[in-house]
Design goal:
The chain has about 375 residues and is α/β, with parallel strands linked by helices. It is about 40% helix and about 20% strand. The strands form 2 sheets. An 8-stranded parallel beta barrel has the order 4-5-6-7-8-9-10-11, surrounded by 4 helices. The two termini are about 30 Å apart.
Length: about 375
């Protein structure tokens, strides 16, 4: 089997998809680059790349071009030789990374290759990667952000429980005082039972002293973790916070490639390893970080694109929970089911996903 061609599209869809009825989402749009990788035996693999964060990033045209240029280098190659092809593309791109657009573009390529391999062998990607479980915990994300006021938090959080979520994430880092930050956690805990896991993301907005001061004051609310409390490169600062607090410290989404994770883990900076599929460079690299974390007895959590991350996270024994961020739902005809607070691996070969061509054709640029 050989790679025979490809199609790349740039698509802009609604930036946010509120999970709770009656809650207004953002009017902004978010860009995605979709890839369909064709083979001479009729097996097609799909992948997605996007720049996490800013919805109006001006570099999306560059990302689409990067995916096209990398895919062109694969024509005529055996798609089952994933490590070999990954190395070939990284070598061809020497001087352009690792990191940035190169890693993000590589993610769609790598994901499509795994999709092809799963379809060709009639196995789910999760099974190919290890097949540790067929479902895994998932948490509602993007619904309790710092743009929401206290009344919003009081309304939305119980509704997420009604939808079947036993875990959910909120944010701090946007208030002018520590007391106002803490009040947000107080309000949420008052409307949620102790059995509901509550995570909190800071998005690198605090310094070390703030993280320790505010973090110690919210420990009474039994947070499942505090995430990205300080700048991602400040491994020593993260380690100080992790040592000072009993609340687990989670980080990793902002770093590119696999090597920063080694430094972060060796410095004992974090208690929970979060891996962003785009920034790490795809499924192949995700698994290397996950196994590294396992060697240090650390759990792994995913960042964004749950439709793909359900496979990586369910494949590993140290997978903790999948972030259910509904940014990319519209891209697919059908997405993985959520049952009893868990996201279920599709019972289909490959990723078990199919692009919604109507959406792509309507919103492609």
């Amino acid at each position: 089997m050989k790679i025979s061609g490809f199609e790349v599209n740039s698509v802009r869809i609604q930036a946010d998809n509120p999970l709770v009825a009656g809650v207004k989402g953002s009017d902004a749009t978010r860009g995605f680059v979709t890839l369909e990788l064709y083979t001479d035996e009729g097996v097609t693999g799909i992948g997605v790349s996007f720049i996490p964060g800013n919805v109006s990033n001006p570099l999306y045209p560059s990302l689409k071009l990067a995916v096209e240029n990398l895919a062109e280098l694969l024509v005529g190659e055996d798609p089952l030789q994933i490590e070999n092809l990954y190395a070939k593309l990284m070598l061809a791109s020497t001087g352009s990374g690792p990191g940035g657009i190169l890693n993000i573009a590589m993610t769609s390529i790598d994901t499509a290759l795994w999709d092809i391999k799963g379809k060709f062998l009639n196995q789910s990607v999760s099974s190919l990667l290890g097949g540790y479980r067929t479902s895994i915990n998932t948490y509602a994300s993007g619904q309790l952000g710092r743009e929401k006021n206290l009344e919003d938090l009081e309304y939305i959080a119980p509704r997420l429980v009604e939808l079947g979520f036993n875990q959910m994430k909120t944010q701090m880092g946007g208030e002018l005082t520590a007391s106002a930050e803490i009040q947000r956690m107080k309000v949420l805990r008052e409307v949620l039972s102790p059995d509901i896991d509550l995570m909190c993301d800071i998005n690198q907005l605090w310094d070390v002293n703030q993280a320790i001061q505010i973090g110690s004051r919210v420990e009474q609310y039994n947070l499942f973790w505090l995430e990205d409390v300080v700048a991602c490169e400040d491994y020593q600062g993260l380690a100080r916070v992790a040592d000072a607090l009993t609340t687990p410290i989670c980080a990793g989404e902002y770093v590119y490639g696999i090597r920063p994770f080694r430094h972060m883990i060796e410095a004992r900076s974090i208690d929970i390893v979060m891996i962003d599929l785009m920034r790490v460079g795809g499924i192949t690299q995700f698994m290397k970080v996950a196994h590294m974390a396992e060697a240090f007895n650390l759990p792994v959590v995913s960042h964004l694109i749950p439709e793909v991350q359900v496979h990586t996270m369910s494949a590993i024994p140290n997978g903790l929970t999948v972030e259910y961020m509904p940014w990319s739902l519209e891209l697919f005809v059908e997405t993985p089911a959520i049952e009893n607070g868990q996201i279920v691996v599709p019972n289909k070969p490959g990723l078990g996903l199919e692009f919604n061509q109507d959406v792509i054709n309507k919103f492609k640029e």
